[in-house]
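Entry 14. Ran structure prediction on the chain below.
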Amino acid sequence: MSFLTFKGGIHPPEFKESTEHLPIEKAIEPSTVAIPLQQHIGAPCDAIVKVGDRVLVGQKIGEAKGFVSAPVHSSVSGEVKSIVNMPSASGGEVLSIIIESDGQNEVDPSIAPKGKFENLKPDEIISIIKEAGIVGMGGATFPTHVKLSPPSDKKIDTIILNGAECEPYLTADHRLMLEKPEDVLFGLRAMMRAIGVEKAYIGIENNKPDAIEMMRKTAAQYGNIEIVALQTKYPQGAEKQLIYSCTKREVPSGGLPMDVGVIVNNVATAAQVAIAINTGMPLIQRITTVAGNGIKTPKNLVIKLGTSMKDIVEQCGGYAEKPGKILMGGPMMGLAQYTDEVSMTKGSSGVLVFTESEAQEPDPSACIRCGKCVEVCPAFLQPLHISNFSYNNMMENAEKYRALDCIECGSCAFTCPAKIPLLQSIRVAKRFIIAKKRKQS
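Output, structure tokens:
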């Protein structure tokens, strides 16, 4: 049997065996949560509670400031102790609301089912998604209501759900598709109704045959939803690569999925849409894989947002030995953390802990002109040239070589025999180019 794929990409070791067969567990209730007011791409929220207030589960505590933003809600009931800057998983600090739980988990009275989605108008579904604070839960954290509100000149005819979970170690989406396939399909159908499309795909890598079988069985009653078996290859779950694999449509340079009539969301995002409609509960918790050789007991956990990474590690038996590197997310695109005091957020798909020996960075050597970085680049770039331009502060040249088309998957750096930090230097160029464009606009 042949499996669909894209050009380029790599095959890193999967390292999923420690958690792929472990059912999802509910994490221990946190005694205190620190809920960041920015857990999404776009403008941060404004706090709408004050110190001393009692808040309830599901209560909105941060109001979105702009269209590209998403509100945040309390994951516990209890008292607001402070509103202060706390370490952020994305680096630096972020204003956060510190809530001491009273252990009662009293739900806000506004939380109630929204009714059958078939009876909801498209704009009502989008409003529910917006008010629930739902964002892309594969890690990108782009507000979902924005994706579902394309410009009038962009005709969308297809939705694709990303169930590839191509990052090594991560198995949260895999377990979700096995244990809650109905939620995934309910959320997908609700989003299809919201934007008026008749065709959808769910792309799943073929290293998850049980998930493919489960999703096909559950989706059999819906003739317009196709479960697509994808070749296991990284970055199969990247938007442009997933679109090509499922539809053979190519997003143009500098373009977006909507330019080829497609919207892409994660399976976990779809499941959260189902929760918001069926129960009224906003996004206050998520499934996260906790794994790596630095963790004593790997798990897939449902974790309340605002729980500290340190508490989650302790629930998994603590550190197996002194950690050498802690990542939020996967090993290819996740972010290294300087402290385990950071809070779990809407985009926390994984917590990975590596030992000191695993975390040692190799010393780079001179480029041997092998061309492997060009061969594996899924965006058809020349990573070495862009990297060299970045090192030499030749940012205009880096832009001409389409630095902004880099999806930051890290395939080039992974495959480089000289161990040149290609991705890191390309990121520098991208940040410089984007900052310059903002100043000029």
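The domain at 117-279 is CATH 3.40.50.11540 (Rossmann fold). Will compare against last week's run tomorrow.
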